[in-house]
Amino acid sequence: MEVGKTENKSPFATEPIGHLIIKFAVPCVISLLVNSLYNIVDQIFIGWGVGYLGNGATSAVFPITIVALALSVLVGDGVAAYLSLKLGEGNLVSVKKGVGNAIVMVVIAGIAMLVLTLLFLNPILTLFGATDVLRTAALEYGSVIAIGLPFTMISTALNAMIRADGSPKFAMFSMLLGAIINTVFDPIFIFVFQMGVRGAAIATVMGQVASFVVSVLYLPRFQSIHLDTRAMRLQKRICGHVLSLGVSSFITQIAITIVMALSNNLLATYGAASPYGSEIPLTAMGIVMKVNQIMISILVGIAVGAQPVIGFNYGCKNFARVKKAFQLAIGSAEVVAVIAFLIFQFCPMAVVSLFGSEEGLYNEFAVLCFRIFLLLCPLNGFQTVAAIYLQAIGKPIKSAIVTLSRQIIFLVPAAILLPRVLGVTGVLWSGPVADGLAFVLALALIVYETKQLKHSASAAK
Question: For the chain, what are the domain ranges?
């Protein structure tokens, strides 16, 4: 029989920290990678089957999927943090209500995204930088992708809950199944049936529906709670708490959308005045952003994998384990970020060539994108873990500041100002400028919170 409180005899409080982080981070990394690979796989097959203009069209649609992802992680990551904190406190009643309310919220958000995207797709594409050359293919691709938005949003949010419930492998399987279906049907629809970008979109939606079905099947199998319809009655206080804990993840994703919209328009504008033209910079940057998303997915996966360990032990006031989990997550993330840096700086053409057989100016600008825009990507490891850490210990505002600083506060002004001096390459230099300044801010906040943790640990003795 479920009760309101339970003793904290959880593996989060007893198992080795490193083992716990690996247990939760690896499936989470794979799930997020799979999510990123939906777009990467489409780009690869479209690049070879349609050409770089097809990739340019999908780049104009990509921000729509990021908005959908932002809303799903706002709810999903928020309720995952809420679930971990409340389990640490032993409050199962609040856990049940939080999960139930989160499910209702993401369903409403998914339906709203579908309707708004179909109604306003053309002006949305204009906002995201689609040129006249790319518009027809972008409309064809986006109209199909819109149908899959509710399915991918619900499954993404449910996967965050499933991981926090202690079943990361199930969440991984859900995402992996969808990616396999997408990868199998992409070449069939593009090369065999000659369906172009529409075929790639159909394959993507098929994979998203499969992930959705598997995720929904988990609902009766929750380990920590037994869901019922009463838990799904929306309560303002619970919804507010859940959303506040997910705001950092939301800002991370929505900021990517703002940056892509701004970058696409700036690249098209300044590119038109350069030898590259409008379409080459827009397409090349789209490829770079999606490849970079692979690195970000791994970094976020490591951080989110550590999140339930940090959140639970912070709720239990076991501050030594909180500190150790944070340090291990930082170390792991930095290793990944440095490896990515080496690839981006020394092997960019090997990555570019995956997306089709192009030459000349396209390849030249794509290599510039990797080497300049991602010049300080090693700093992203610390910043990403820092943001999730602050979210996990119940400091969503500071977490949001860390995330917002890189994506908006520093990057947007740099992207607007630098091209006036440097032309189209000025858009690329906004990346390292933002990364460097955001790292300094994140470091300052973490130093402050570390001192506070030491005070709390001393007071708890």
Answer: 13-460
